[in-house]
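Listing S7. Sequence submitted for prediction.
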Amino acid sequence: MSRDNLLKTRWEQVVKILSNRFADGETMDLDSIIYLIGVQELGKPNHTFKKDEKVNLMHIAICRLLEPYGYYEFDYFDKEGWPHYKIKSQLPPLKAGEQAVLMKEAIVQYFLEKGLIE
């Protein structure tokens, strides 16, 4: 199976599993999955978040997802338990489609590491 087909198959597995678990079977989009990863990384799944906190959760997820690629590095947890990252290197300029592929690839890798998919 080609790399692109493998990514597509694994991405579909992630979407199906998460959609069934968190969205009553309605298909979750990329942003929703990034948000869920942020909640997971923060470790407060039953907390109700304000709008600005939701944005911060997505930032946490993006940093965590791109950490293995060398773009971010975990720095510390603040007194409220929120993780903070520092930039190691700037992301290259990417078109919207390329950004989506990078994020899907990073999400698939994240869930491979977590054992959600194979």
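Caption to Listing S7: primary sequence and predicted structure tokens for the chain studied. The mean pLDDT is 94. The radius of gyration is 15 Å.
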